[in-house]
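Question:
Now give any protein.
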Amino acid sequence: MANETVVRFGILGCAQISIKLCKAISKAQNATLIAIGSRSLEKATAFAAEQGLPEVVRVYGSYEAVLEDNEVDAVYIPLPTALHVTWAVKAAERGKHVLLEKPVAMNVSELDRILEACETNGVQFMDGSMWLHHPRTAKMKEALCDEQRFGQLKWIHSCMTYNPGPEFLKNSIRMKPDLDGLGALGDIGWYSIQAILWSVNYELPKSVLAFPKATLNEDNVIISCGSSLHWEDGKSATFHCSFLTYVNFDVTILGTKGSLRLHDLTLPFEESLGFGTFSESSEIDYAKIEQGRWCPRANEHVVETMFSQDVWMVKEFADLVGKIMRLEMKPEKTWEVVSRKTQIVLDAVKESIQRGYESVEIVMN
């Protein structure tokens, strides 16, 4: 497109997820990778070689060097959560737009420091929740908003689990309180909470109550937990996240007239083939119920897509950044709200666990 700006990305860190973002940036026509930095030049150089990055990509032996590169417009930050507030604030203060991996912060106070820096310096913020950008997600929202098919939303359940094994539980940064101290709650519980809030148009619940007997390691990092969420109008939701059980990425949303189910929220099973699916049921035939057929067959909806959800995320972020750079708009605040509300509920779940599984009231400030 003639008026499209190609946004120049830098990446802080060589985490596994950085591989995915390098590929996504290369496939988005409005983005290009020009710099990557690590804690050592050797590690950054090895990463660039292993991933076959173009020679034009500058390799740095520090995160600071990426931020000091005047040609970098935006940065992707996949560092451990405890480091987010430091490096996201530094990036914003240097005028770099911020694509920040989830969970975005250790708590909402840290996130507010990040958002304040982004607002003060006029840069775009977005978290790295890729599923929100898949075309399938927009189609699911259409189904939920169709009152004739779905009715009034009443209940949501999400289950996000995988079992990475004893080595992970012993040595992963997800298990270290000084690096990613939110554990399973931050890593995969973030998706459950976000999916629940997305379902209710980001209306915060009135209260949160963690389920008893959460599993914590010897450093008090959450390995497995669950919670219920309650709204004043009677809606409710539950979720479970765990590093101790078989892989599962389910979301079920129930209304008075229909239901919506998704078994692969974080990464569509068939995305590499250009589509994603979800199941939706509605219009019960009560004559069949009388014949003993209580459960109607779900309709499977296939949503075709030109790009994988990580590419869509990069494209949307780069589109916003490009418009800001062309002075066509100011930073879009919607993504700040999405992340902040997710963080508020996550904090409340953690607080409920710490308070001996007492109910925690949600107060929006």
Notes: The chain has 13 helices and 16 strands.
